[in-house]
Amino acid sequence: MWKIYLSVLIGMFMSQMLYGQESSKTYLDVGVGRSFFQDQKYSDAKWNGVSGRVDFGNEELRKNHLRGWNLQVNVGSETPKGHSHSASIVNPSLSYFYLRQVNEKLYLGANWTIANLYNRSVSGLGNNSSFTDFSSSISLRGSYDLNIGKKALKISADVGLVSLSKMVISFAYSAPQSTLNDGKFNFQDSSIDSPSGKEGFQWMAPWDDLRIKTSIQYALSKRFDLVYRWEYRKYELVKDYPTMYGLNSLSLRYNFRLR
């Protein structure tokens, strides 16, 4: 699987370099947000906290389409109400999008989250402290351009279509439902309890893995943008015990390479 990802990444970057474009920008975002988490397999407790985020990416506009890639890293800390424990979160994600122009303002297409690694570690739980979710997903994306006076405003939204997910966690009963049903779970089997292992992945439809993202981007100047994002995910790897997490964030974007 990792060889496939590497081949895709090389092809993605080479295509951006080889083919001409009408305009292109490379950007760096730095921001802060409010995150939440709940995993009902473990507890009904709702966790909240503050996260910092950094985004690095490229967007290019051609005659009839818009495409680009984005590397995102979220790092934060959360605590549950009424408890003293805290959880540290590290969430890197790499994605690529391609949108076709429908009219002067509207673009429609898809966003492929090539790899998303959500890792959290809870204090005070010893061997039961880790939670890691690895996934790859495809979403439908729409983008709409507006103008507020002389300032540009871009609104975009993603809705998940299909995903491939794997959860690695310290609790045996939290293994994927198919793994439990087939009697495959084994703490000593690295193909199951490692995010890079080949076992334990599940294909999930949108009603089993709900993913929603929205973004509002406001141009402050030629070089600087203000970007608000809302991200939400709800899924079940064990039947009737959903896992939910999300992030509201506000970032300042610097477009340091314009063509």
Write the layout of secondary structure elements.
Blueprint: H1 2-18, E1 23-39, E2 47-61, E3 65-80, E4 87-101, E5 106-122, E6 130-148, E7 151-169, H2 177-181, H3 190-193, E8 202-204, E9 209-219, E10 224-235, E11 243-258
Antiparallel strand pairs: 1-2, 1-11, 2-3, 3-4, 4-5, 5-6, 6-7, 7-8, 7-9, 9-10, 10-11
Keywords for this entry:
11 strands, single chain, mainly beta, 10% helix, 3 helices, 259 residues, Lipocalin, 10-stranded antiparallel β-barrel
Based on Cα principal axes, name the global outline: globular
Rg is 19 Å
CATH top level is: Mainly Beta
How confident is the prediction overall: mean pLDDT?
Answer: 83
Q: How many beta strands in the DSSP annotation?
A: 11
Number of helices: 3
How far from one another are the termini? 35 Å
CATH third-tier fold name:
Lipocalin
Largest sheet: 10 strands, antiparallel, barrel
Question: Could you say which structural class the secondary elements and strand pairing correspond to?
Answer: mainly beta
Total separate domains: 1
Give start-end ranges of low-pLDDT stretches.
Answer: 16-20
**How large a portion of the residues is in β-strands, by DSSP E?**
over 45%
Assembly level: single chain
CATH superfamily: OPCA outer membrane adhesin/invasin
Structure description:
- The protein is mainly beta and 259 residues long.
- The protein has one domain (2-258): Beta Barrel (Lipocalin), CATH 2.40.128.100.
- It has helices at 2-18, 177-181, 190-193, and strands spanning 23-39, 47-61, 65-80, 87-101, 106-122, 130-148, 151-169, 202-204, 209-219, 224-235, 243-258.
- Strand 1 (23-39) and strand 2 form a beta hairpin.
- The chain starts with a helix and ends with a strand.
- 27% of the residues are buried.
- The model is unreliable at 16-20 (pLDDT under 50).
